[in-house]
Design goal:
This protein is mainly α and about 230 residues long. It has one domain. It is about 80% helix and about 0% strand. The chain has 10 helices and no strands. Helix 5 runs antiparallel to helix 10 and helix 6 packs antiparallel against helix 8. The longest helix is centred in the first third of the chain and has 38 residues.
Length: about 230
């Protein structure tokens, strides 16, 4: 910023305005990402009018925590930073799910857990929307791409996870072609700058995707709970 010719008062005013705009942009992005998550859960679980604001509050807190993690490790592309980012995101997802479980009914929680691919896709979309400041249309496009990728990933991991002791290497090898296909699709809907940010955190995002797919249970459709009434 060129401030050499400005008075101290003017410089302070400009600086204050810029900070206010950054804060407003961040707040707007947090609310948009959280609202996306809440809308998905409202549709999936038929949330009641009493549950919606509680779920939104949980999602806002989770989105803010994710943004802090992304800000902390975003400029560091080392393997150690990618690992730390993935671990931090997994921990935050666990925290989010714990909070949601307290708000949802037992039937809603069971149904939520059964939608494995949808949950994987939603987590990835939330992270990307938060980190990349996606537009509404991009959120819809990225959500579709992530859901396609999640469905393929769940199917691809069935074989390695069927063994008694699946190795991390076997899981990664099974996931690799799925992740490459998904990334190619994402490349087509993101801007150049957004894609660069994705590439910088690629290992962390992929590690999170695979960890969640490998760790999450996937109950059979026959065990599905009925949709709760509002």
């Amino acid at each position: 910023m060129r401030i050499a010719a400005l008075t101290m008062a003017t410089a302070l005013a400009v600086s204050t305005s810029a900070v206010a705009q950054d804060t407003a942009t961040t707040t707007s992005n947090v609310q948009r990402v959280a609202q996306y998550s809440t809308d998905k859960l409202k549709s999936e679980l038929n949330l009641t009018a009493d549950q919606v604001p509680k779920v939104q509050k949980i999602n806002v807190a989770s989105t803010e925590a994710m943004q802090k993690l992304l800000a902390k490790y975003g400029s560091d592309t080392s393997a150690a930073a990618s690992s730390a980012l993935a671990k931090g995101m997994v921990a935050e997802i666990r925290s989010n799910q714990t909070a949601l479980k307290k708000v949802l009914t037992p039937a809603q929680w069971t149904l939520h857990q059964q939608h494995k691919a949808e949950r994987l896709a939603q987590t990835q979309t939330e992270l990307m929307a938060s980190d990349l400041n996606l537009t509404r249309q991009q959120i819809l496009d990225v959500s579709r791409i992530n859901l396609d990728g999640a469905n393929q990933l769940v199917a691809a991991l069935d074989k390695p996870l069927a063994g008694n002791k699946p190795t991390h290497q076997a899981i990664r090898e099974a996931a690799k072609p799925v992740m490459e296909t998904r990334d190619a699709a994402l490349h087509n809907v993101l801007t150049v700058d957004q894609w660069k940010k994705v590439q910088a955190k690629r290992l962390a995002f992929q590690e999170l995707f695979v960890q969640e797919a490998a760790a999450s249970p996937n109950p059979s459709p026959s065990a599905a709970a009925p949709r709760p009434k509002p």
